[in-house]
Protein 1
Amino acid sequence: DIQMTQSPSSLSASVGDRVTITCQASQDISNYLNWYQQKPGKAPKLLIYDASNLETGVPSRFSGSGSGTDFTFTISSLQPEDIATYYCQQYDNLFTFGPGTKVDIK
Amino acid sequence: QVQLQESGPGLVKPSETLSLTCAVSGYSISSGYYWGWIRQPPGKGLEWIGSIYHSGSTYYNPSLKSRVTISVDTSKNQFSLKLSSVTAADTAVYYCARRYFDWQGDYFDYWGQGTLVTVSS
């Protein structure tokens, strides 16, 4: 089984701040990683696929990078509507989600 | 626009079988892609349960495999989940989703709104 970890588990930042979340896989998954945003009471929404590709319609302030075991998700300028929990997900071997990072406004 | 809608009992007794259906509109399941189930216990993270192709080919999360059956009904454009011998640990919001894949990526692109299933006597 491939295990996914994320850090931090939660963070508070001010509007306009740069926010960075890291995701680590327990083994090499190449670039087989996606990022989702989940707002309270809603289904997850795909933001980034294949580690660094922005899904159509997603604002360009969201970005992803990394390969192998270490990945980064960045919001370049945090907006109030970005309050949510963010999950990484690997698809190298079946599917596993990270535990999530809750982002709120300071 | 592809839409998915889960339906089924919101309360299941311990040791019984949880049954849910996902109705798909805006896309024919027979046209391709995999269709799957993902769950989320209250206040916790996401867990992939399993997926099915329109042909009926399935694959499951090894941790749930012994209790899970996913089936498809292309005539009704829907697919279903059965989870047997449930316990309180199976209490969760259950989502159905489409697994999109091509040479560029592999991800869950369309999701249902989710349905809460509580296991309790």
Protein 2
Amino acid sequence: DAKTTQPNSMESNEEEPVHLPCNHSTISGTDYIHWYRQLPSQGPEYVIHGLTSNVNNRMASLAIAEDRKSSTLILHRATLRDAAVYYCILRDYGGAQKLVFGQGTRLTINP
Amino acid sequence: NAGVTQTPKFRVLKTGQSMTLLCAQDMNHEYMYWYRQDPGMGLRLIHYSVGEGTTAKGEVPDGYNVSRLKKQNFLLGLESAAPSQTSVYFCASSYSGTYLYFGAGTRLSVL
């Protein structure tokens, strides 16, 4: 499975945008980029995923570099509820149907 | 609609005891997964299943067995519990492997 690299922790202020980076230099052509987040004492929840083009949904935006070796999860206006661990995961749609989580980025939101 | 239900929520075992964790989903999902999460760490995939009657090994399968006799249930067994298996166990299910729905977790302590 291709690996991802994320900062261990980040901090931001409430109502400001947050940009969470992810490096995946060994990504293959069939790897989709998935983001999940885990709120305190809960199981992870799906945030967004994409292949090549930037993606938007009600929770966040995903910006994918042209060479696909990095991506950025964007929370447009962070709230205290967005404090969580964010996981960037590569999933090979041509291979086994599994998601392998890394260490993630712990996001702290200051009031 | 209960989603993904894990039983039990908490358990304390002595070294060498056995137990079975039950995961039940009511969304008619094909894929089911068992992860473990150690304190301050990301999730690690133990075993997974892509359909009734099938199972496959994940990243850390040693010391665990699984069964998927019914589509809605995925059982995780510990034959002889060890302190190293103290962790929070999460079950997840998915229709296509894209959107994973996680349960609330089972906290297991092995003394």
